[in-house]
């Protein structure tokens, strides 16, 4: 199914594909390079929404034409050849948690990290567990190297179950309404997209009641809804909400 | 905390993640006690129920906590634009390279594939890193001050050497690694000098 090349709302957007660059209107300050389905991209979109930061997404399709992230143009922007990347303040930065922390420091409204260092380390720990310990082990580029579709599913499930077992245990002592206490934090931004991945790989959630409960509560919040993969400029028609 | 009030570090001499934290503790002159956790013996002591109950604090979260509670010397620049570069490089290594070539993943890949798998993960990350460092590096990864990025770099280069990665394509990484290894904090924390370093690997 061809991915729509323009933002569905009809606004002109810089399209990230070779030879079809269009003249853009005045570019906004912040440009996230994002794939609708990428959990790392979703984390950054949630952050931008929570902090009410204006942005315009440039979609990067990770599958089409061998993966637009490998194009020379994108590689020049982000040598890591990954999404998300964020163009902001005259520079382009990669790595979702680095981006989120940068936004946290330069746009402190609606804090995503608690003031108290002891609570802050818990938020970081949970974020690192997901962003460093689960997601990289089940992302597209790793799964491509695992031969055979059933093996890929088993591999992804193993990575997620392994991480979720640890996370469920940690949340027993850290969670209130959300991952750490009762305020939405960077940990929550990591949790929801990872749960979406888990659903996609048919992970059984029965062993993870705390993760499930928190995920459900977060999905009700507007920032998590407007940034959801089912409503992005590059969401294919059949997956749109 | 130990009985003496010192922090306790659960560490494996060879683990690059443990080494990062040891460097941070050394740079900040924080006294600590090591409790060695052998990642291989008995199927891996990290899987014991006791260890799971105590831990796992992850990676860079520990270093950032140390940075906030013992701010000197700084491991993160004051300027947000430099700070994001330090974090980006740290995350590239800690999230993008290391997890893809750690023990538990390599076990799943099968012995005959392990070397190739590890080399691929490291080469992939190092290519990106070498390019990034062209614009960020001074004496060290970001400018001329040692930062969290440098703490991540050195242990990862050690892993690269262990997996026989050819470092010729990465002159900036190699130069910075060499400069850092001359510093005391990187030497005292080195895997070859830990309480649990086997005799045959001791410096």
From TrEMBL, chain B:
InterPro entries: Glutathione-S-Trfase_C-like (IPR010987), Glutathione-S-Trfase_C_sf (IPR036282), Glutathione_S-Trfase (IPR040079), Glutathione_S-Trfase_N (IPR004045), GST_C (IPR004046), GST_Zeta (IPR005955), GST_Zeta_C (IPR034330), Thioredoxin-like_sf (IPR036249). Residues 5-117 form the GST N-terminal domain. One of its GO terms (biological process) is L-tyrosine catabolic process. It catalyses: 4-maleylacetoacetate = 4-fumarylacetoacetate. GO terms for molecular function: glutathione transferase activity; maleylacetoacetate isomerase activity. Keywords: Phenylalanine catabolism, Transferase, Tyrosine catabolism. Its cofactor is glutathione. Residues 79-199 form the GST C-terminal domain. Its EC number is 5.2.1.2. It comes from the Eukaryota. PROSITE patterns: GST_CTER (PS50405), GST_NTER (PS50404). GO terms for cellular component: mitochondrion. Pathway: Amino-acid degradation; L-phenylalanine degradation; acetoacetate and fumarate from L-phenylalanine: step 5/6. Belongs to the GST superfamily. Zeta family. This is maleylacetoacetate isomerase. It comes from Pipistrellus kuhlii.
């Amino acid at each position: 199914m061809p991915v729509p090349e323009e933002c569905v709302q009809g606004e002109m957007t810089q399209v990230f594909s070779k030879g079809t660059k269009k003249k853009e209107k005045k570019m906004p300050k912040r440009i996230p390079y994002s794939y609708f389905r990428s959990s790392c991209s979703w984390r950054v979109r949630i952050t931008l929404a929570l902090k009410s930061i204006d942005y315009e997404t440039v979609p990067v399709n990770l599958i089409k034409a061998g993966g637009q992230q490998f194009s020379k143009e994108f590689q020049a922007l982000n040598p890591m050849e990954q999404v998300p990347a964020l163009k902001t303040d005259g520079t382009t930065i990669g790595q979702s948690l680095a981006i989120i922390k940068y936004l946290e420091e330069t746009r402190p409204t609606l804090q995503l990290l608690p003031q108290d260092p002891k609570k802050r380390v818990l938020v970081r720990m949970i974020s690192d567990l997901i962003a460093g310990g689960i997601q990289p082990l089940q992302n597209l580029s790793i799964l491509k190297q695992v031969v055979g579709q059933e093996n890929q599913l088993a591999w992804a499930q193993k990575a997620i179950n392994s991480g979720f077992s640890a996370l469920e245990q940690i949340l027993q002592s850290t969670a209130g309404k959300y991952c750490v206490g009762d305020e939405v934090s960077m940990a929550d931004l990591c949790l929801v997209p990872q749960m979406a991945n888990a659903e996609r790989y048919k992970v059984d959630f029965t062993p993870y009641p705390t993760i499930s409960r928190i995920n459900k509560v977060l999905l009700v919040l507007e920032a998590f809804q407007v940034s959801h993969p089912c409503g992005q400029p590059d969401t294919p028609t059949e997956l749109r909400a």
